[in-house]
Structure prediction request, 380 residues.
Amino acid sequence: MAGGFGLYIHWPFCEAKCPYCDFNSHVAASIDQDAWLSAYLQELDRAAAETPGRTLNSVFFGGGTPSLMAPETVKAVLRSVRSHWPVANDLEVTLEANPSSVETARFQGFREAGVNRVSIGVQALNDDDLRRLGRLHSASEAFRAVEVAQSCFERVSFDLIYARQDQTLADWSSELTRALSLGVDHLSLYQLTIEPGTPFAARRAKGGLRGLPDDDLGADMYALTQHLCAAAGLPAYEISNHAKDMAASRHNLIYWRGGDYVGIGPGAHGRLTFDGRRHATETHLQPNTWLKAVAETASGESARFELGNLERAEEYLMMSLRLSEGTDLARFHALAGQRLSTQRITDLMELGLVECSGRRLSATPTGRPVLNGILRDLLA
Prediction:
């Protein structure tokens, strides 16, 4: 299967809900880890029965805050994974973590469980902005978490959010330069967006959330991000993701390259291909609903539907154009049964927004910030 095969496991719980977050995450007073492990193992049994013999390239524990899982839970899940599927020699096992001291103390346990890559939700490197973002950790805890992670794991990534309230271009330059000096092999750098339904959206609607950068400053921050990361040996391989050579997230590449992946846990999505026909899967969103469904119906899925050929092709184009390597046009044409408009591609090339080399179409550095517009033109 082109793109590879991965497994995503969603842990829905957090210590607190960040005001900018629109992910499926929940705060719970107590968590029955045994019940969650039992449900995960049952779902792994079901998924493996559908995909026998597939070589697994990656496992990703996402959330929520998966570092709130007991290391024993992670170990049992990975033991089950290895019993169900043949795994690649370079199997990537990523776990998302926050920099709190409680979670950092578990890093060695996660390594012993089989995790070999950690992605830390740092988000900012100063205490004032961390408080504004609703984060529970301090900047000093963030630096310590990165240091501990580097002593435990082969590969370490962390996230930062820029274009924050009252942040200047010089502020971001200083912060990103310090982040790059920490020596991780991967950074995920996201411009703050105000998502509908979040506390930040409600706050802005009431006239709050003042001091957000305007579009021009946001664009300058994006351009500065590309320059500083490339100069430090972490060029962008995807719009918001930067990595040293060979350090790109293999799991996320499965998404962007249109591969197959199993989605387990509340709100997890999947893409599975059987006999050349690709299916989208969805799971129950609420944790207790998902847990009950697994126990009572032997499945956490809430929906499954086949994607048509054109739908598959358009999804592949939208995901793959996010990558610096771009889209394999021959693959798009084979999926869609038709070609993209040569005239539209030519027009975009003349504007300096895309380039075409052989059978690959990619967005230029100028085009990446306006990728949504490029996609609208190509798919019109």
Observations:
- The two ends are 28 Å apart (CA to CA).
